[in-house]
Amino acid sequence: MADEPFDQERPVSKVRWLKTKVAAKPKAEPLKLGPALPPDDPKPPEVKKPEIPQFLVGPPAQPARTRRRHWLLVLSFAVLVVLPSMVTGFYLWQRAEDQYASDVAFSVRTEEKSSAIELLGGITELSGSSSSDTDILFAYLSSQELVSRVNDRVDLRAIWSRVSPDNDPVFAFDPKGTIEDLQAHWDRKISVVYDSGTGLIDLEVRAFDPQDAKRVAQAVLDECAAMINSLSDIAQEDSIRYTREELENAVERLKTARRALTQFRNRTQIVDPSIDTQNQMGLLVTLQQQLADALIEYDLLQDTTRDNDPRIAQAKRRIDVINGRIGSERRKLGLGNEGEGEAAFATLVGEYEGLIVDREFAETAYTAALAAHDSAQAEVRRQSRYLAAHVKPTLAERAEFPERSKLLGLQTLFSFFVWSIFCLIYYSLRDRR
After folding, report:
1. Which of 46, 82, 101, 395 is the most exposed place for a label (fewest CB within 10 A)?
2. CA dist 121 to 112, 114, 118, 254, 379, Å?
């Protein structure tokens, strides 16, 4: 019956057939894990748990509840964050006055005008920026001298105290302040941005009135232009001062050399000793030629006439006179006649040549100094630095300052950071106890 197959034609359900098959199978023996318990021991042996020392067991956790330190944290948050933010917001929206900004941007330019030869050769640079002058101008924008000059032109005290300091003590200026106070307030009202790569300077001027902001920006631009012009004048004067001094020294040296030569000519009554020397040499040559002719004539007379012929005595006298004249002329060219106070031509020529050398050297030095001075002046005329404003002072139509939302957000964030740091410090100290 148990092995009888399932017949679908018989009226027996499939479920009943399966139950019959399961009942007919033999039961499996239980798995033996160990020795069987004795029949007289009804309960298994108990396993003892390890005992935990009493000092390691803490008290049971209590339910969380609000303590005094929690209320102190909430109170400190209100005092350090909420209250300052409320005070700042009230001041910014109720007491702080609107401010208008005027923008101006400029740079220092250097223009070089090249000569016609450089233009034909293609070697020219029409313009460029001078970074050193721009650095000087950037430092000048925050100097006390500029603040004083602009204050003399537009009265900064009246402009920045248009709003009473009693009503707006943060952004208004007290007109009773010193020049140092005015300079400190200048740094708050003037914003300067300098790009060292391009040499451009952006300037932002704030005031309670748009016209006042534009006036201050224009005054700053004019004073900066005047400062750059003064730097250009100083540079030009420095570049030509040395050459001008050299030229003056060369002119004075040339005057002294010419004056000495004039005194020599007045003293000796000789314009050019070299010409007189040539004349004396020509005279000596003539006398020597006449002496030669006289000697030849004397020899002929001795050969053709008697000893007592008067022509022989006359020829001999002529020879003596020519020799005496030659000796006199030689003494003039050489040693001279000291008894008569006459100077030798050699001495006069030496003195004259020394004066000529001094004059020629002075003329050469004068020519070189004059050329250097003219070249320096031409170089100064070639280079010209000036202040170029590519953005003129603007006139604001809407108040952009103070940036109330931005200031309130920064103040709140700063207060929150301060409160967080205090909380961390408190809990660190508390955990160490």
Report:
1. 46
2. 16, 11, 5, 39, 18
CA 240 to chain centre: 23
Residue 107 pLDDT more than 70? Answer: yes
Q: How far is CA 352 from the centre of its chain?
A: 58
Q: Which CATH number fits domain 98-242+382-401: 1.20.1380, 3.30.1890, 3.40.190, 3.30.2420?
A: 3.30.1890
Residue among 69, 73, 229 nearest 136 (CA): 229
pLDDT of residue 331: 65
Domain ranges of the chain: 98-242+382-401, 246-379
* Helix (H/G/I), strand (E/B), else coil: 200: strand
Poorest-pLDDT segment among 86-90, 107-111, 155-159, 270-274? 270-274
Higher pLDDT pick, 277 / 291: 291
Q: What is the DSSP string of 85-149?
A: HHHHHHIIIIIPPPBEEEEEEEEEEEEE---HHHHHHT----EEE-HHHHHHHHHHTTSHHHHHH
| CA-based nearest residue to 222, from 76, 106, 67 | 106
C-beta separation of 236 from 380 below 8 A: yes
Q: Which residues pair with 129 in a beta bridge?
A: 109
